[in-house]
Amino acid sequence: MTSEKIRVFLVDDHPLVCEWLGAMINQQPDLLVCGEADDAPRALRDIATLQPQVAIVDISLKSGSGLELVKDLNRTCPELAVIVLSMHDELLYAERAFRAGARGYVMKRESTRKVVEAIRYVLSGKRYMSERVAAAIADKVVQGQAVGVPPVALLSDRELEVFELLGEAQESRQIAESLHVSVKTVQAFCARIKEKLGLHTERELLREAVRWRENRPNG
After folding, report:
1. What's the distance, CA 188 to chain centroid?
2. Could you tell me where the beta strands, DSSP code E, fall in the chain?
3. Rounded to an integer, what distance in angstroms lies between the CA atom of residue 2 and that of residue 133?
4. What is the pLDDT of residues 27-81, one digit of tens each?
């Protein structure tokens, strides 16, 4: 009698990524993709129903924030092992993902072997991260800051999300609707972002957000 396979749930708004991940994971004799979602609300609903052991989550989703989803999953499904798989700079996002409750962080440019390795690693009770991230976190502990991290690392998760949406040329009203908050709340976030980044005007904030958004990969 064969043992039951480990169920893996995929959360990514890129169909080709899900297809690639699904095919690769299902080739493993002990792993099985049990479901997929392209946004946070559906992921929360389906994960609660299907009860997988592992969830692989992208940071950028069709609806909702991947980091906020990780926090929600950590609260509602504490036994679930969450791995963040993203194109976003690991020095900026990996520590945030771990603070949110993720047990692993893998860049999409890594080989498929790394994804399977991460799944098995987190299931053994360990945290999976690259040597680069581990070194940066160690530097932060010893020196009080991580070497090579950009100024936007000063932003909170929510502030960074607003900054990203500004970089996509979204107006305050659109950002408020996307984040399900008031326009005044968005404006408060913008004020704090300007203060943390040493910016003085809305035009400077928008220019910096667009420049940063254009100079980092999507994913």
Report:
1. 23
2. 6-11, 31-37, 54-57, 81-86, 104-107
3. 38
4. 999 999 999 999 899 999 999 999 999 999 998 887 778 899 999 999 999 999 9
Q: Which residues contact 92 (CB under 8 A, 6 or more apart)?
A: 149, 150, 152, 153
Distance between CA atoms of residues 178 and 192, nearest Å = 19
Per the CB < 8 A criterion, the answer to whether 31 and 25 are in contact is yes
Listed in sequence order, the DSSP H helices in 101-201 are 112-123, 131-143, 157-167, 172-179, 183-197
Strand, coil or helix: 36: strand
Q: Are strands 54-57 and 6-11 parallel, antiparallel or unpaired?
A: parallel
Return the structure tokens found at 107.
């860049």
The pTM of this model reads 0.76
Helix, strand and coil percent figures for the chain, each rounded to 5: 55, 15, 30
Token representation of residue 68? 């906020």
Separation between Cα atoms, residue 89 and residue 97, nearest integer Å: 12
Domains identified in the chain and CATH numbers: 6-140 (3.40.50.2300), 151-214 (1.10.10.10)
Strands of the sheet containing 6-11, edge to edge, are 31-37, 6-11, 54-57, 81-86, 104-107
| Nearest-angstrom CA–CA distance, 33 and 54 | 9
What letter does residue 60 receive in the DSSP assignment? B
